[in-house]
Amino acid sequence: MKKKQFLMILAAVLVLGAFGLYMQSAPPSVETDSATSSPEMKSELSNKELLAKFEKALTIIEEQYVEEVSEEELYEGAIEGMLRALDDPYSVYMDQETATQFMESLGSHFEGIGAEVSMTDGKVTIVAPFRDSPAEKAGLQPNDKILQIDGESIEGLSLYEAVLQIRGEKGTTVRLTVERVGASELFDIPVERGLIPIETVRSDVIEKDGQTLGLLEITSFSEDTAERFKEQLEQLEAQGIDGLLIDVRGNPGGYLNAVEDIGKLIIPGGAPIVQIESRDGEKVRYVSNLEEKKPYPIIGITDGSSASASEILAGALIEGGGYDVVGEQTFGKGTVQQTIKLGDGSELKLSLFRWLTSAGNDINGEGVKPTVEVKQPDYFYTAPLSVGDLGAFRLDMMSEQIKNAQLMLKGLGFETGRDDGYFNDQTKQAVIAFQREHGLEATGEIDDDTASLIQQKVMEQVRERDNDLQLQTAIELLIKQASE
């Protein structure tokens, strides 16, 4: 890109507003002297001054900076700087390589850790790990901030530069250093990369108390999600279900049209599924045209990882359908992005609209509150255990990791007496009991082998459906509603 071309593009950006997507009103015709002092003309002069300032800075850097720097780097940096000025973690610039990898991630599968990420306060932040992904299995949680990759700081990297480092070949391991809200220490999470399939809808039938319940889990909203949802819903209905559970926990979102089409299958006719608002305040309502309300009750299930399109569905169930949603308050992503090609293979992913719930509520930064709030047991939320250079945790030590171990041991049925991170004698006895039960040397200390096995047993327990308090609460409530 030549300097003159880039400056013309920058001028267009300054004049047209948000990257030319929203045109300002035309300036008045210049017939009198008063017209030249209008706000529109002043704004144009200001834009010319800004453009001259930019060109001057560009020339000074090119000619006088202590090291030689390419024009391409400066232009790319200028675009990234404009996006940073928006203070929007979801609006990003992607160069040719990054844009190509981004499109690959929308296909049937890709290799990586399986997590939606954003840039928040200059830090790469987990929005949500995909359900059953390496990221989820390793213990990554929403709002975890990644500070290092394989021991190297990623400060200063763009979001997609960091993503390219995190992604990699199936079977290889990446070590992420994480900052977590509520944890006093940074900790490392090793994640073995895998093949991340984009199979977005899974169904099951639950038989309990004489009722047949359908379960549809939506892991993300891709191009064919609505079609897959429709197919599997029809299969469940053919089996004569008495109620339907829709689980969007751990679902980071996806295509707006996918959730709109799903809403038309389950939300009563005439009710809005979602409302889309432009920056001018204009709203478009997407209304369901379902002819008849379903003859069975429906309950949604959410958690803090349910984001974007998942939140649209949760809001539509509550406000448009009058249905219950069980679980935890959702993530709070209330904007809609669109990918815009820049002509050379690079792209902008830019927030263009806000979305509002069926009743017109803005959930950005807030999330959707379920009608029945249920948290999982404490050990569901613990960080992975890492002994590190200490060699072992033992009597009279105190740390955040010991607190996690205490919560895990309690969840596994070994009473530690306390869960504040102080390794007391009762914690030691709980560790000895755990070691004896699983054939380890009964030292009463948590070394790497013991920590790894505690982590493994906790993950096994987390995956047991009977231990899932949110799902079990939703099942009991659905049975009650189906029996009324």
Would you write up a description of this structure?
Helix 1 (3-16) runs antiparallel to helix 2, helix 7 runs parallel beside helix 8 and helix 10 (400-411) crosses helix 12 (448-462). The chain has helices at 3-16, 39-64, 71-85, 96-104, 134-138, 159-166, 225-238, 256-266, 309-320, 400-411, 425-437, 448-462, 469-483; strands spanning 92-94, 109-112, 115-120, 123-129, 145-149, 152-153, 173-179, 187-192, 194-197, 201-208, 211-218, 243-247, 272-277, 283-287, 298-302, 324-327, 335-341, 347-356, 372-373. It contains 13 helices and 19 strands. Helix 7 (225-238) links the parallel strand 11 and strand 12. It is flat, with a radius of gyration of 26 Å. It starts with a helix and ends with a helix. It has 4 domains: 3-25 and 37-85; 109-197, Pdz3 Domain; 201-376, 2-enoyl-CoA Hydratase, Chain A, domain 1 (Alpha-Beta Complex), CATH 3.90.226.10; 378-462, PGBD-like superfamily/PGBD (Muramoyl-pentapeptide Carboxypeptidase, domain 1, Orthogonal Bundle). The strands form 4 sheets. Strands 3, 4, 5, 6, 7 and 8 form a 6-stranded antiparallel sheet that branches. A 6-stranded mixed sheet has the order 10-11-12-15-16-19, with helices on both faces. Mean pLDDT is 86; it is low at 5-42. With 484 residues, it is of the alpha+beta class.
